[in-house]
Design goal:
heterodimer, A: 410 residues, mainly alpha, Cytochrome-c3 Hydrogenase, chain B, 3-stranded antiparallel sheet, 8 strands, globular, B: alpha+beta, Alpha-Beta Plaits, two-stranded antiparallel sheet, 13% strand, binds iron/sulfur cluster
Chain lengths: 410, 134
């Protein structure tokens, strides 16, 4: 191709919208020069499901269970943020014990999410044995979550005004066992990830995001912290039980003595946060006050309170990937007047561009994964031009496939 | 071996039993319901599942007799999985649409709804008899 025109670069590589190298659906267009990425653009919006639209036709008691399903990993962050917004509008005071239960679940969520991410990162580096090991140890936190909430993924524990289940003394033991396991494992995990030569070779100084870029792009969560930005809602804007706890931001220089803002630093921050979360949960268990876990146990009454409420509020929580933000406006009606979700990945996606520029094709999977993107939470809009979209069943797909073959044969 | 810390771990792993429980069988059957039927008739062998935790939220159970047809469960169901039948003043639950939130069971003034431990519901037919509770 190049011989005819005498022009070699740049050429375009599209990756996506769904591609095995990416764990999430997003459309990348890379402008390449040899193996090197000269520039990159991306288009999200491939997994929009219209949850906000559904929410605006439902009452807050129903919506909390929809919010559980905005993300497949953060089963509590979205509900937590949404409930906090509604509670502010309806002036519902959440009992202190409920705050502690919410905090404990949120921290378990951080543990399982960071371990899940660490496994994915290992897999993207081709280190599948480490993936399997990480995901095996992750199971214990999933088991605890299942025991506390009744489900592994869609916890359904938060309700406007509090939580739906208390943590009873019999459950303390399994929580304690789980924390002890992770605290014992942490140094091993740190060593497996950070002392490994191949991981260091692939991640050190790869996908660098400078502190300046991180600030300018409003990056949040571990992605920002790995670039040395001191942000953590739990520290800067303590909500729920975090006001009583002393949470300090984890920055990579606490481990390695320096901050480079590369993929390696992102591993450092997330693994250290697993240890931090264990400490927070332990502190919560020790200090949890007795009392009710919900401001209004009667759902019919709760619905009536919400129906009277009007006003607007935002709920913010520090999700495993960074700040999760819900805006709700209610106008004394059953359903909210408007509801807007800004997931943490939304703030982080733009940081892909400086990270990817100048890197190699082979580094794309790990750099893309390094911000722990969650596109299903992020996608709030989809553009469809004229085409009709319906549910295609297995039979439909089979029929379409047969028709395609016939067309080719004809 | 400090630069290859995974090696000793892998060697240790060789001695351990696999962590995965091969449920329901070594290879996933296309329809779990059909597979369970063939297990019942002794044609297939089932590897038992990991136990469900206490207060697990599985397939819904409905006690028709106590129901007063108040429709409160319909009002709180986030996924519109419950239908109030006007003729009989009783409800019908489309389990394929249910998201197992257990909000209806919390809401029912008569305690006629309950979450069971049953979770083996995967199938390709959303209107299967097993998935309609009334
Ligand atoms: S469990 Fe939830 S989704 Fe299922 S029928 Fe009851 S309220 Fe509806
Ligand atoms: S809430 Fe209970 S009593 Fe009322 S309709 Fe539903 S099942 Fe029947």
């Amino acid at each position: 191709m190049s011989e005819g025109t005498g022009r070699k670069a740049p050429y375009i590589i599209p990756i996506g919208p769904t591609h095995p190298a990416l764990k999430e659906p997003v459309m990348f267009t890379f402008e390449m020069e040899g193996e090197m990425i000269r520039d990159v653009d991306f288009a999200p919006g491939q997994t929009h499901r219209g949850i906000e639209w559904m929410g605006m036709r439902r009452n807050p008691v129903q919506i909390v269970h929809l919010t559980d399903r905005i993300c497949g990993i953060c089963g509590v962050s979205h509900t937590f943020a949404f409930a906090r917004a509604v509670e502010q509008i309806a002036e519902i005071e959440v009992p202190e014990r409920a705050d502690y239960v919410r905090t404990i679940i949120a921290e378990f969520e951080r543990i399982q999410s960071h371990l899940l991410w660490a496994g994915v990162a290992a897999h993207e580096l081709g280190f599948d044995s480490l993936l399997h090991l990480t995901w095996r140890v992750r199971e214990q936190s999933m088991d605890v979550i299942e025991n506390l909430t009744g489900n592994r993924v869609n916890y359904g524990i938060v309700q406007v005004g509090g939580v739906r289940r208390d943590i009873v003394p019999e459950q303390h033991q399994i929580i304690e066992d789980c924390l002890a396991t992770y605290e014992g494992l942490l140094s091993k995990l740190l060593s497996l990830f950070l002392d490994d030569r191949s991981i260091a070779l692939r991640c050190r100084d790869v996908g660098v995001l400078s502190q300046k870029d991180a600030l300018e792009l409003c990056t949040v969560g571990p992605t920002a912290r790995a670039s040395g930005v001191n942000v953590d809602l739990r520290q800067d804007y303590p909500y729920s039980a975090y006001g009583d706890l002393d949470v300090r931001t984890i920055l990579p220089d606490q481990y390695a003595g320096e901050t480079r803002g590369d993929v390696y630093d992102r591993i450092v921050v997330r693994l250290l946060e697993v240890g931090q979360s264990c400490g927070i949960i332990r502190q919560c268990l020790d200090e949890m006050p007795a009392g009710e876990v919900t401001a209004e146990p009667k759902i019919a009454k709760l619905l009536a309170i919400c129906k009277k409420a009007s006003g607007e509020a935002i709920g913010r929580v520090e999700a495993p990937r960074g700040e999760c933000f819900h805006y709700v406006r209610m106008e004394a009606q059953e359903a909210p007047h408007s509801w807007k979700v800004k997931a943490s990945s939304y703030s982080n996606l733009m940081s892909w561009i400086p990270m990817l520029r100048g890197e190699q094709i082979a580094d794309i999977p790990i750099i893309v994964a390094s911000i722990d993107p969650c596109l299903s939470c992020t996608d709030r809009v989809a553009v469809i031009r004229g085409e009709r979209r319906d549910i295609l069943s297995k039979e439909d797909l089979h029929r379409l496939s047969v028709e395609a073959t016939r067309r080719l044969q004809a | 071996m400090s630069s290859l810390p995974m090696i000793p771990e892998l060697l240790r792993q060789l001695m351990r039993k696999p962590a995965t429980n091969l449920f329901p069988a070594k290879y996933l059957p296309p329809s779990v319901t059909e597979f369970l039927q063939s297990v019942a008739s002794g044609k297939a062998h089932l590897t038992p599942p990991v136990e469900t935790p206490p207060r697990f939220r599985g397939k819904i159970e409905y006690q028709k007799d106590g129901c007063i047809g108040c429709g409160l469960c319909v009002k709180v169901c986030p996924s519109h999985a419950i239908e109030l039948l006007p003729e009989t003043k009783r409800i019908r639950i489309w389990v394929d649409q249910c998201i197992f939130c257990s909000q209806c069971t919390d809401m029912c003034p008569k305690g006629g709804l309950r979450m069971t431990d049953e979770f083996l519901l995967a199938t390709e037919d959303r209107y299967e008899e097993n998935l309609i509770v009334e």
